[in-house]
Write a structure and sequence with these properties.
heterotrimer, A mainly alpha, B alpha+beta, C alpha/beta, A: mainly alpha, Formate dehydrogenase/DMSO reductase fold, globular, B: alpha+beta, Alpha-Beta Plaits, 4-stranded mixed β-sheet, two-stranded antiparallel sheet, 12 strands
Chain lengths: 436, 242, 786
């Protein structure tokens, strides 16, 4: 019987498909650990569900804390994939191809946790449908919901259609996997044959979607920032907050890609498929982002401190020398100083250092999100914070556990995915196309 | 249509907190207990506190120390930042200028609480509780209709609540006038804090009526609004000391 | 080359323009807020609603209240607009009163306590009545009715005279008021000068200038609501705005609101007042008519030095500056303003605040009141008034009863009038007297919690052990009731009949307590209880009380107030508005205003600048005799107001701070208020504390001790130490620290117990030897980080 499907030839096919062949005991162990962490988070959430948000360290005037930080962070993380595959696709940067899927997977899997963080933060999750019954488009939160859901939906489509040829490949090549898995490939492949116009159409669809996704990526994180920027609170109410968030998002997203790639490379022995040159390309990008982020930072703080409006300065001092000084300077170190040193002097051809820098950047960016949100709240303009427990924020174990479980969930989805689908796009990295 | 407004003369206010507590018993705000109160989760729709709220601000050195106190109900802004940001329309301004909260619709996202520059909005972190028989004193008034729940009715946890200028008193006064077959007059209605004020520092009335006390006082050279520069146009107006 | 605009182009441009306009319109919707459409809501409320006019009992102001009762529950209190003291206003204590009524820690019925085990067991009211009447009859049969002692708090209205009558019928002179803890110093100051033993009422409404000597008149004092109303009227209720100067080591609310705050060295108010008198006399700004015709002792009297020369010789502003720390120029300026902006008013402290722990405190009160005399503000518009009371129907005469007569002839057990020659009540000294061996067989506590509210209150716990029969009428198991043998809870003021004289306005008035709801528990109005006791006791005591219920007593006594019972019940208050000033020197002046209460000196209508009453006690005393009374002055000076250096407990080197225990607007003076959760919550508003106590300290002093805001500290005096939290307060003298009163309960209930510490534990428990006053401000403390 003739093979009905055409698959572009890829010399690395075996290496890329290797992880998909079987689930190891180690995998199961890792999944169990991650599920365990999520279990703690679920338990924490149940205590919150039954007792109320009172179990958190949130208070008056710090109404938003870890949960909203996670929301912003995860949405930011989600910008990795779109940036790599959409923006770089438009820019024609062909070196990106091996890492597109790994990056998009981060997008896809972090978005639900961003959305989840918002739901966890709600005082009345049982009334979530009110957003659809009574949604008001004047509220930036509605802009957010619209943008994020559109982003999630588009990302799924973008991710899925670019996955099609590889699902078909799995369908055809992976004969030893359990029958349910084969069935899954068969259904998900949507009868892909790779023949005729299919690849051409796929490329065209992806190109067109890339334009849309690029617009969306800019919109989404700007809109996320506007949740803060649209209020009249010191430290939030600045026009720069949109671009600032956007740069931060792409920055942390791209760094996350470095981490993921390095792990995949090591664990799944993909040194050849994911060459060091990839890291060098990412290094260049990250140098640009580090500097761009610094530029944003200077623009923001110089404007604020030069004008020195007293309400604004209270928040600035909270960050520079006040309750958040340790976090703030840690953030400056981990997001700018150390990464830049590593990128410039140590990172070239050295995956290890790149990973160190990327991890530092992501820790720093999480802190940065926290610092955008909380210090402003601790220095309200008309709430007396004379009381010992006021004007500060100490997260409870529930908030920490839930934060941990969000990360665990992201990792779990990711590792499970890599065991069932090729994480490097085989067709995009193929060496030949179909000969007519 | 009236435009309800409150004027508070800081010279006559002696920071007794009678307003805070009148509000509590009129509107059923719970006592949250020592640990919660220390965290700042106390529920006083009408709070009283010393000024400046920022300890770094210069208040002079001993013995030339300036100490001020301010009572703070909702400002009932004409351009309320809280309403703009509410994703579900749970907070709204009625056509008489009172900013109200629909307890039946609020989803507890706390966007309004962070958006309000005055900190007048309170979130129910925990289920409100009254140790028996303390709950006996709860005000039975309840404003309800078409998916709206307002008034002193005890709020469930997880939602935001705030000063309503005792809107149930307005409804009551209107109903009374109607029952007696006469027109409702603006002076038939005052919120609980205004009624109890020990220093008679509070005035309440219709800002649209140029003859009303609040209109007259709003023209005073002592009159100011808190954070005027933010563009919220508060209808709670203060008169400076001295 | 021109290009024709095609229809298509036109449409494109139009579309863009229209689109932009729509976008702009949409933007308007984004940036502004529209009023919601009218929502058809309906109001649901209680089926059954009632309003009762009554009186608040949570501080000594006695404000009129309107109690809203919905479906049989008290849901809200409002001020009674008819009541002249509060005129519709109500402070946080009154507003929170439903928490008193529905407090989970209320006593639900009479109890008997077994001393050996400490356990209490419920008894019936009949048993209680039996036990008490048996005890009193036993005492009477033993011929010692005076061994029954009643201590009471701020009990006014008919209950005060009812209790007096009851004790008199039993035959005991020992009815001891708590006034020695608060207003007695000021009352003595007025007594020794003006010759009446009463707090003056102040005509705030007409005065132009107020000098407040530690009269914490916006937070506490004897009638805070009255002084708040008066103050705000003075400031903004009339065309001209009066000036207010506050003299107090602590700024507090009144200092913050005043035009000037003078942080005086504690215990030196006498010197400041006399320094101002010096300026007023020198500049000739005295009210010459008053001084010449209606006062005694301005000029020298024979060889004796008069007030003028005494003050001119001794109280030059420069010297006063040395004593008080107030600049001489300020003294001169304030004195000039005070005397030239008449009518002006000097306020006496409503509590022990001014008292420097020795008799110097009384001298200070005299000096302050003399300032009023110098500017002619005694019994004058814009000055002081003399409180008149509603005429009540006289009690029927007690039938002659030899047992009672014998008992009543014994000296008072608290030493007032004997050990403390000038004292009228020595509340805190009761413990010492009992411990010193004065026999007390039965001790009744009405509205009184001496174990908590006196300096060194633990002595009462000791003293109670020596009294075989201690009875408390408290509605809560407070620190004193915990040690009582019988606990006979009275219902709260919202469930019982009672009344109150209206004070602070000068003119007479009566305010009614009536039950807004039926008593929640098996409690009994103490009036009703004592009527039953009297009935059970039989004999002359029963005969003295022919009434069936306490409500009947009220109706009997208030027969002639000018209205019928029904109207009175409806309004809750009745008064004769408009104070009528007595003309100087008139018969009314002599009979009611000046000198009428004097016991030894002539009741001649002369205001004493040189106290003749005091001369009768001290005039002939030798230096060493005076020294035992803590008075360093000798000769004529002892009868003239003068500055006596405070004799502090605790030397200044070891204990550098003077401790000032302050009464707060929120918690007020009554122990049960500390068990009202709402009041606990708001108690520390000025410093940002809640449900706790704290130590206020000047930032400079704190930094010297290395203390930062909110540090935990030990506060230690020679009498004890407590652990609390320091809060930095700029408006406070560096050598003074403050602690709030009414925290640190070990009993009362779940909300009060264990909240903060009781500063009174640190205070000098001694009584002033001449007057029997409690020493509130003569204790030094030290503070260190814990």
């Amino acid at each position: 019987m003739l093979p009905t499907t055409f698959h572009p030839q890829n010399n690395n096919e075996a290496v890329i498909l290797a992880p998909v062949h079987r689930v190891t005991r180690k995998d199961l162990l890792l999944w169990a650990v991650l599920l365990g962490i999520m279990g703690i988070g679920v338990y924490a959430y149940l205590t919150q569900w039954f007792t109320g948000l009172g179990v958190t360290g949130l208070n008056r005037p710090v109404y938003w804390g870890f949960y909203i930080t996670n929301f912003v962070f995860f949405i930011g993380l989600a910008h990795s994939g779109t940036f790599i595959s959409a923006i770089l696709r438009l820019a024609g940067a062909s070196w990106r191809t091996p890492l597109t899927r790994a990056a998009e997977a981060i997008t896809l899997f972090s978005l639900p946790f961003g959305v989840g963080a918002i739901l966890i933060d709600m005082g009345r999750p049982d009334r979530v449908m009110n957003i659809f019954f009574y949604g008001r488009f004047q509220s930036p939160l509605l802009w957010d919901i619209t943008a994020v859901s559109l982003y999630l939906f588009s990302s799924i489509v973008f991710f899925y259609i670019s996955l099609l040829p590889d699902i078909a490949l799995c369908r055809d090549r992976l004969t030893e996997v359990p029958s349910w898995q084969q069935k899954m490939y068969k259904i998900l492949a949507l009868g892909w044959t790779g023949r005729g116009e299919q690849f051409k159409r796929l490329e065209r669809a992806l190109d067109n979607m890339a334009i849309f996704m690029t617009l969306l990526v800019v919109t989404v994180h700007t809109v996320v920032s506007w949740v803060f920027g649209m209020t009249v609170q010191p430290g939030w109410h600045t026009a720069l907050i949109g671009p600032f968030f956007l740069v931060g998002a792409i920055f942390s997203g791209t760094s996350a890609v470095v981490i993921v790639l390095a792990i995949l490379r090591r664990v799944y022995h993909m040194e050849k498929v994911l060459p060091v040159s990839l890291f060098n390309s990412l290094r260049k990008l990250l140098i640009v982002f580090t500097v761009a982020w610094l530029y944003m930072m200077i623009a923001e703080f110089l404007t604020t401190t030069y004008g020195a409006i007293s309400d604004e300065m209270l928040v600035v001092w909270q960050k520079f020398t006040g309750d958040f000084a340790v976090l703030f300077w840690t953030m400056a170190l981990t997001v700018f100083v150390l990464p830049l040193i590593i990128f410039l002097f140590l990172g070239k051809d050295h995956v290890g250092w790149m990973v160190v820098a990327a991890i530092l950047i992501n820790i720093g960016m999480w802190i940065e999100r926290f610092l955008v949100i909380v210090p402003t709240e601790t220095r309200p303009r008309f709430v007396s914070t004379l009381m010992e427990g006021m004007g500060s924020y100490h997260p409870s174990w529930q908030e920490i556990a839930i934060t941990g479980s969000l990360f665990a969930g992201l990792i779990l989805l990711y590792v499970v995915f890599t065991r069932f689908f090729p994480i490097v796009p085989i067709w995009e990295t193929a060496h030949s196309g179909e000969t007519k | 249509m009236a435009k309800w407004s409150m004027v508070i003369d800081l010279e006559k206010c002696v920071a007794c907190q009678g307003c805070s507590i009148a509000c509590r018993f009129e509107n059923n705000t719970p006592v949250v207990g020592p640990d919660q109160a220390l965290m700042g989760r106390a529920m006083r729709w009408n709070d009283v506190f010393p000024l400046p709220i920022n300890a770094d601000e210069d208040t002079g050195e001993y013995p030339n120390v300036t100490s001020r106190y301010i009572p703070r109900p909702c400002m009932h802004c004409e351009n309320p930042p809280c309403i703009k940001v509410c994703p579900v329309g749970a907070t709204f301004i009625d056509n008489e200028g009172i900013v109200e909260q629909n307890y039946a619709r609020c989803i507890g996202c706390r966007f309004c609480t962070v958006a309000c520059p005055y900190g007048v909005r309170y979130f129910n972190w925990l289920e409100p509780k009254w140790e028996a028989p303390l709950g006996e004193h709860l005000n039975p008034d309840r404003v309800e209709g078409e998916g709206v729940l307002e008034g002193p009715v005890v709020r469930p946890r997880g939602i935001v609540e705030k000063c309503t200028f005792c809107v149930h008193r307005l409804i009551k006064a209107r109903e009374r006038a109607e029952a007696e077959g006469r027109d409702f007059r603006a002076d038939e209605y005052v919120p609980a804090c205004v009624q109890t004020c020990t220093g008679k520092a509070r005035f309440f009335g219709d800002l649209d009526d140029p003859a009303s006390t609040v209109s007259q006082l709003a023209k005073s050279t002592r009159a100011f609004r808190v954070l005027e520069e933010v563009g919220t146009h508060p209808k709670t107006i203060y008169l400076r000391e001295g | 080359m021109s290009k024709m605009i095609t229809r298509r182009d036109f449409l494109k441009v139009s579309a863009v323009v229209a689109g932009s306009a729509t976008a702009l319109g949409a933007l308007k919707n984004v940036v502004s807020v529209q009023a919601a459409a009218e929502i058809p809501t309906t109001l649901q409320t209680a089926a059954d609603e009632n309003i009762f006019a009554s009186t608040c009992h949570l501080c000594s102001a006695g404000c009129g209240i309107l109690v809203r009762v919905a479906n049989g529950k008290v849901v809200k209190l409002e001020g009674n607009p008819m009541h002249p003291v509060n005129q519709g206003s109500l402070c946080p204590k009154g507003q929170a009163a439903p928490e008193l009524l529905y407090n989970p820690d209320r006593l639900t019925g009479p109890q008997k306590r077994d001393r050996s085990t400490g356990h209490t067991s419920p008894i019936t009211w009949d048993e209680a009545i039996q036990l008490v009447s048996q005890k009193l009859n036993d005492l009477r049969q033993a011929g010692h009715p005076e061994q029954a002692v009643l201590m009471h708090g701020d009990t006014r209205g008919q209950m005060r005279s009812f209790l007096v009558r009851f004790m008199q019928a039993v035959g005991s002179p020992n009815i001891i008021s708590h006034e020695s803890l608060n207003v007695a110093a000021a009352k003595l100051g007025v007594y020794l000068t003006q010759g009446i033993y009463a707090m003056p009422a102040y005509d705030f409404e007409k005065t132009n200038y107020i000098l407040s000597f530690g009269a914490n008149f916006l937070e506490a004092g004897s009638n805070p609501q009255r002084t708040i109303s008066g103050y705000t009227y003075l400031r903004r209720g009339r065309a001209t705005r009066g000036k207010v100067v506050v003299i107090d080591p602590r700024q507090g609310i009144h200092g913050a609101k005043a035009d000037e705050w003078i942080p005086i060295k504690p215990g030196t108010d006498a010197a400041l007042a006399l320094g101002m008198a010096n300026v007023i006399i020198r500049t000739g700004l005295v009210d010459a008519d008053f001084i010449k015709n209606y006062s005694f002792g301005f000029d020298n009297i024979g060889k004796a030095k008069g007030f003028r020369d005494f003050v001119l010789d001794n109280y030059d502003p420069a010297r006063v500056e040395q004593i008080t720390g107030v600049p001489a120029t300020t003294i001169a300026r304030l004195a000039g303003e005070f005397a030239s902006n008449k009518p002006s008013l000097a306020l006496l402290p409503g509590k022990g605040g001014l008292l420097n722990g020795g008799f110097g405190g009384v001298y200070a009160a005299m000096a302050v009141h003399i300032l009023n005399a110098l500017v002619g503000s005694i019994e004058a518009p814009g000055g002081t008034m003399t409180q008149r009371n509603m005429p009540c129907v006289e009690w029927p005469r007690l039938s002659s009863d030899p047992t009672a007569k014998k008992g009543l002839a014994t000296p008072r057990m608290d030493g007032a009038g004997s050990k403390f020659q000038l004292g009228r009540n020595a509340y805190q000294a009761v413990a010492d007297q009992i411990l010193d061996g004065i026999p007390v067989e039965a001790l009744f506590l009405y509205d009184a919690n001496p174990v908590f509210e006196t300096p060194g209150g633990s002595r009462f716990a000791e003293a109670f052990k020596k009294v075989p029969f201690v009875v408390s009428f408290s509605s809560f198991l407070d620190e004193s009731a915990e040690l009582a043998d019988l606990i006979l809870p009275e219902p709260t003021f919202l469930e019982r009949w009672g009344d109150d004289h209206i004070e602070g306005l000068g003119y007479p008035g009566i305010s009614l307590y009536q039950p807004a709801v039926d008593p929640l528990y098996e409690t009994m109005n103490t009036g009703d209880f004592l009527l039953k006791v009297a009935e059970t006791m039989g004999g002359p005591v029963a005969k003295a009380f022919p009434w069936k219920s306490y409500q009947e007593v009220l109706q009997f006594r208030l027969e002639n107030i000018g209205t019928d019972w029904k109207t009175f019940k409806e309004l809750g208050v009745w008064f004769t508005p408009g104070y009528r000033f007595a003309r100087r020197g008139s018969q009314k002046w002599v009979n009611e205003i000046v000198g009428v209460d004097r016991l030894n000196a002539p009741r001649d209508g002369y205001f004493d600048l040189y106290s003749r009453e005091l001369y009768c006690f001290l005039g002939k005393m030798k230096k060493d005799e005076l020294a035992t009374l803590g008075i360093t002055m000798t000769g004529d000076g002892t009868s003239l107001p003068h500055y006596e250096e405070t004799n502090y407990a605790g030397d200044e080197a070891t204990y550098p701070f003077t401790l000032n225990v302050i009464t707060l607007m929120s918690l007020g003076p009554r122990s049960e208020a500390a068990n009202m959760p709402t009041l606990q919550e708001i108690s520390g508003m000025t410093v940002g504390e809640t449900w706790s106590s704290w130590l206020e300290m000047n930032p400079e002093s704190a930094s010297k001790l290395g203390l930062r805001d909110m540090d935990p500290v030990w506060v230690e005096s020679p009498f004890g130490k407590v652990n609390t939290k320091v809060r930095i307060v700029k408006g406070l003298r560096p050598d003074v620290v403050n602690m709030p009163f009414n925290q640190g309960h070990s009993a009362v209930g779940r909300f009060a117990r264990g909240r903060g510490v009781n500063g009174l534990k640190l205070l000098n428990p001694a009584s002033e030897p001449l007057s029997g006053l409690a020493a509130f401000t003569n204790t030094h403390v030290k503070v260190r980080k814990s």
